[in-house]
Amino acid sequence: MNYVYDVLINFNKELYDFFDWNTSDNISHIRKILIFKVNNKIINDLKYKYINVNQDFLVKISNRTEMFTSQNVKIINYACLFTNGLEVIGAKFDRNGNLTHKSRLLIDEESEILDSIDDFEEYDLNYKIITSLPISDFKTRKEREIEKFINKNLKEININDSEKLKYLYYECFNKKENDFNKMLIDINKALKNNWDKYYLKIYNFFKLISVKGK
Length: 214
Fold this sequence. Notes:
Layout: E1 3-9, E2 28-37, H1 40-48, E3 49-53, H2 55-61, E4 62-68, E5 73-83, E6 88-93, E7 99-103, H3 107-114, E8 127-132, H4 141-156, H5 162-173, H6 180-193, H7 195-212
Helix pairs in contact: 4-7, 5-6, 6-7
């Protein structure tokens, strides 16, 4: 079996590039972890789908991942790395074989791994696809968090907030509007069709009024 030693892994339900990692993420310092070389289809399924592996594979990886903690070393029950020779994906499974968390690696650690796997034999992973992930809209993790915040605040705004909405509307479009429903429709349409132009103005507006409301 092939192991990788001393790497950082950021297990999340979504697969985030290293530049999208947050300081608040629970990043694991892995002492050692198994790695399997697989084909491109398996890597793509790991990236864009949720899969279920069989019990034989769970047995193969069971308790073989070790993670440093502040006081000692902790065992992660079902985790491993997969690579196709071009990229490396970390995966964590539950006891039923369901893929629950994924991770990319830091770019320098990934490069070091890729330089050392040329003679690895390709592993034929036996799995089935459970569900596919939504098609990416190419927003970064931070932008998706901002989008969620904006959508929540737009849904909560009501007719009593019409003066605030008028101000936001003017900030966005440099013109006045009094129709409450039209303002909401136009703002939502602007976010949908021209995200890069409008999202920061709207996000900063809602952040400002949330601070003033405290």
